[in-house]
Amino acid sequence: MKENTKVYWKGLEQLTNSPDFVQNAHKEFPEAPPEENLDHSRRDFLKMMGFGVSAVALAACEAPIRKAIPYVNKPVDLDPSVANYYASTYINGGDYCSIVVKTREGRPIKVDGNALSSVTKGGTSAQVEASVLSLYDNDRLRAPKSAGKNTAWEDLDKAVIAKLTEINAAGGQIRIVSNTVLSPSTKAAIDKFKAKYPTTQHIQYDQNSHFGIAKANEESFGTAMIPSYDFSKAKVIVSIGADFLNAWGSPIENTKQYAITRDAGEGKNDISRHFQFESNLSVTGANADYRSQLKPSEEGAVVVALYNEIASLAGRATVSGGVEKNYLKKAAQELWANRGKALVVAGSNDKAVQVLVNGINNMLGSYGVTILPHLPVYFRQGDDAAMANFVSEVEGGKVAGVIFFNCNPVYDHPMGDKIGAALKNVSLSVSTSYKEDETASMTAFLAPDHHYLEAWNDAEPKKNHFSLAQPAITPIYKTRAAQESFMIWAGESNVDYFEFVKNNWKNRFFKGGNFQSFWDKCLYDGVLEMPVDAASVSFAGNVSAAASAIAANYKSGAAFELAIYENGTVGNGSQANNPLLQELPEPITKAVWDHYVLISQKDAAAAGITNPESKTRYANVTANGKTVKLPVLIQPGLAQGVLAIAIGYGRTKAGKVADGIGENVYPMVTMTNGSLNFSAAEAKFELLSEDYQIAQTQTHHTYMARQTVIREFKSIDVKENPEILTKSFAPKVATWLDEDHQVKPGELSMWKGHDYKNHHWGMAIDLNTCTGCAACVVACNVENNVALVGREEVINRREMHWLRIDRYYSSDAEVTDWKGLEEASDNPEVVFQPMLCQHCNNAPCETVCPVAATTHSTEGLNQMTYNRCIGTRYCANNCPYKVRRFNWFKYHDNKQFEKSNVAQTSDIGKMVLNPDVTVRSRGVMEKCSFCVQKIQAGKLTAKRERRELQDGEVTTACQTSCSTGAITFGDMNNPESKISKLLKLRPANPDRPYSIDKIADNPRAYTVLEEIGVKPNIFYLSKIRNKDSANA
Amino acid sequence: MFLERVPKTSNKFEKMTSDSRFVASALQPDTKPDMTKHTQLATLKFTFLSLLLTVLCSISFAQDIPADPAAISAGESLFNANCKTCHRVHQKLIGPALADVYNRAPSIDWIKSFIKNSAGLIASGDAYAVNLYNEYNKTQMTAFSGLKDEQIMQILAYVQAETIKGPPVAAAPVAAAGGSGDAGSGIPSSYLNAIVAGLVLILVLLVVILGFLVSALKRFLDQKDLSAEDKELVHSPITSNSILKSAGFSFIVIFFVVALGFKALINGLFSIGVQQGYAPKQPIAFSHQIHAGQYEIQCQYCHTGVTKGKSATIPSVNVCMNCHNQIKEGALYGTAELSKIQAAYDNNTPIQWVRIHNLPDLAYFNHAQHVNVGGIECQTCHGPIQEMEVVRQHSLLTMGWCIDCHRKTDVNSKGNAYYDKLVELHNKSSKSAMKVEDIGGLECAKCHY
């Protein structure tokens, strides 16, 4: 039997076993950081004493008077303490998600995916989950402003209309600049404005531009559009630099579809095969079966090479150029073998590259199957050329009036500086941004729009797929819908945007019957979908011209190239002021609150950089005429000779949370072949002597052996020997019976084991479909009022997240094969493992608590009673999974944590707190509760309706947020539940069906650290990497 | 002055005086939890009394009053539900003590008609009724037209049984029904005093005897040949000063001071955060006694959230206005208080009530679970709310109080399919009814999360 001999490591420190790592890994708790001077004087003692005595005296007095304030006129459908749900739409520029908003007493407190949408299908992302806190951002505009002072809407309107009339009379040019506008009604409102002021042009741009794809499709098929992709139909997926699970195309939709192809069930082998060719290790690359490195300048050449490989297989003419890469031939062969079920995508924004990709997909017969050109998406309507033209116009003084509609080009457009400088000479400048951001602060008038959760709106993310947004809260501040502003400025009399949207829907989509019931249904569902006629396309792109353009435009050879990428946390930076995203460990680097330049291991070694335990140095990186100073972080998997920096940082006017973190690298983006190019062919790297420590969680909470923590198999091995799934690691415990007698660890116990008569809650996490996107972490934070502790405390290893995603690098090399390991660490394989309280049935934490603050329930939950906890931390010490978190400080109402813990330190922020979950205080332990508040609520609903609890009624926050369905939660006592069926659960003893001991017959199911016999209620399904053999 | 049950117009309210409020009878829920106990008690007592009864019956003219235990227990619950607010058997309350009323009153039929319509009887000029009316400050008894003759007979049966029992014995259930303390506990205080006096006497005697012993010992020691030091020691006089300075005395004083201090501290600590009896002044002097008591408005009419969610909800002003659109003057304060509601409604300013029941944030309590699913009466926790002019916190609201109830209370599983499996499993292993405790009602994460 071949054992699973892979080597796993969390960070390079662990691979090299650096002394710092060893020291920290062996300590239960990090060393206490230096506190303030602890030598208290006698006077201090007396002060403390005096305070203590008076505090006790006060506490013994009458409790403070608390008020209960009912409504004057209670809305009929709203009951205090009962949550209401509204279907709505998350719109942030071109980013789209159909959502359901949970409100309590009229306050949105949580955003979930809307399963009725066929676009996002109930999926969400970290940014969508976090957006609810952006609503309560303390740095939002409170009222309209004119010339830096708060003003009244009437006065602002008068002034703006006067200016517009003046410009119009003089025939001056007016521009409306925005990110992608998904909303048909908004476009109609803008049209009204355009009709009044005919010189108006509406220019759209995207931070993460896909303009090249649209241009390529125009050349290939005659229409400039971006098609829908259907990853679920693909057996072989090849991505060249496209981070389609995180930042490319429609990530939520892609993730949903991708997961379908990656579902390995009970170890079946027909999962998709995914090749990734990329420079920086992305979330998508981390999920790939075969990953190959390239330099940004080689992206085009790799596409050319792939084209040629397939063309020769197809017997067609090849084009000139190309470069050889690992697995490229294999990828081509498999694509060809699976033609009609294959998909090739490329991240490049260059028209020439995308024309070749279209050519490849055309040869593979992808159109109509995995690519749906008849179903274009509208996520990215930005026009790089038009925007560049606008910049030159505004610089040349040709624009008299400009309205920035919910966009921030001064920050997030490569030529933002130029726009900012030219604005002084523009006669009328208005921003509708809901914050006084980098652009808005340079405009004369600020007409703040609502946050999307306060506003009516609609969206068309995909052809004939419509979506409604409805307000979940009355506007908090004196803001006004930007669409209403446009219509008021256009001199319209009836400007209620709600009525406008409604009428728009009535005129466009309503097909007879009762309009009110049609409207109510649309509002209830949140979406309206209409069929689209299928149409075939014929490819007419000029591939050889494209190939020569690539050859002409990209030259490699510089010592360093720069790759600019969008990470999975702050994204494009528009939500950077959201601490939920800042403190979310980046899926790959596991860094929080920090901006850094990534460097490959070999380059780091050459430059003499090590960063043990995140301690590093600053470096200056210069590219395309711009220099940024950032700390250096070594990234395994990053191609040699490439530096990588994320966009979304370096905000200066975002607000207290984001300002001053990192540098803005948008200005490093240049135009290549008519569209934005997120790389630089030549970058200068200059290491500085200044030290820095990056807040990085990657080696935090390192725990015992790896063998039963991660279980990963190659599909070829499973195919050859299915037993490997169950037998590769089966720990046994010797007993006293005789020398050879051994039993499974769970079978030996000091206890007889309980019966859970009612429910037995359990969870299954599929490592094969988990993409590591971390939406679940944010969802958990929001649902459970988890405190955000800030950079310093993360460095002290005191982050509070109940759910973490452990990211392991791995290699096939033998443990003793040092050379092999070193090579492997250059391009390691990656496994993500969500790690949360395992709710052990024989929980080690429970037995050591001196005050019984952590106990077990009759439903299998490991309960944590905050008020009983005295903070000995024995439980955390004894937890084999290191999932318990200690409140080192009072994080709520504490000025010290104002920046990070927005939700618990300000009156506005507190509106987001979940009223059903206690905000923990200093000195108590906390951990995942399996969302016990949701369990209790689900049970109560069933009891009130006098019926049994149905499977699927109770969900945890992480499960709901998971786009891939990797997390399954349910009642393991119910044989019909999804979890019972997925894991094929059966009671260990048929006479005791309700016993804690359940056996999972799914061969992929295992429990982490099985050998210690704690009997967790969380099962993992082992990862199957769809590989042929070790070195192929 | 005569009152109708549900006056709709304001002029009727005007005439209402505070002492006429008693006419609204007690609500049933008040006494329900105690009923089973009483029934058992009554049954036990019955066997003891039945002999006595047979003798007594012959001399009373109330032969037609039933004497079977079923009638008595039915009568007891009827009495508790309808009469107890104003009447006791052996005690004069708002109305007369009812002991021996079947012999005292003109006839059983007279009693029936008085209960059904006392006002009519008084108006008809019935001498006994008019006398009674005048004797009790012209307070009108509510008309119980809904009571049937046989029910009145059952009440009389209960009254008769209690009358025969006599006051000292009969006092016990009444006191217990009031919910105060354990009636059967301990020795009367006069005995205690006697015991203390006896103990003091014994102690004094002991002191005297010890004094004799000391002098005897001294004399004995004097006869011996002692050193000068020892002599001094033996003859050192016992003065108040020497006692005060002695180690034993200091120890006793310190011990008592410390013990009492400790006791006071512990008591003080246990009372922190307990606000039983908290009855703050509210911005509007709303009387539950009038609304829930006198007019018997259902609690859920105003507290709409009680079956739906965690919060029972304090009614919004528009709920008040449902009735007070019409009723503009109150019984107690005229227009003074009601105008505040009108003002809040007109100005769209919410009323800031003072919260009485404050659970700490760390405890989760859900009204729907208890009222809707558990079928618990409001009064079980909130006390006789229908009698409260100003609402006060009736229960301790401590964790011990919650736990105690979860231990004692049967799960209301009847007709609720959610519990079917649990009841089946429970019945396999136990013969007693399924308590809340048995299905995890004592677990931490049921209330703390």
UniProtKB/TrEMBL annotation, chain A:
Q: Which PANTHER family match?
A: GLUTAMATE SYNTHASE [NADPH] SMALL CHAIN, GLUTAMATE SYNTHASE [NADPH] SMALL CHAIN-RELATED
**In this record, what's one Pfam family?**
Fer4_7
Q: What highest taxon heads this organism's lineage? A: Bacteria
Q: Which residues form the 4Fe-4S ferredoxin-type domain?
A: 761-791, 828-859, 860-889
Name it: 4Fe-4S dicluster domain-containing protein
From TrEMBL, chain B:
By its UniProt entry, which InterPro entries does this protein fall under? Cyt_c-like_dom, Cyt_c-like_dom_sf, Cyt_c7-like, Multihaem_cyt_sf
Name the keywords, alphabetized.
Heme, Iron, Membrane, Metal-binding, Transmembrane, Transmembrane helix
Give the transmembrane region(s): 191-214, 247-266
Q: Which residue ranges does the record assign to the Cytochrome c domain? A: 70-163
Query: The organism sits in which domain of life?
Result: Bacteria
Give the protein name, as stated in the record: Cytochrome c
Return the PROSITE patterns for the record: CYTC
Q: Which organism is it from?
A: Chryseotalea sanaruensis
Q: What is a single molecular function from GO for this protein?
A: metal ion binding
Name the CDD domains for this protein: Cytochrom_C3
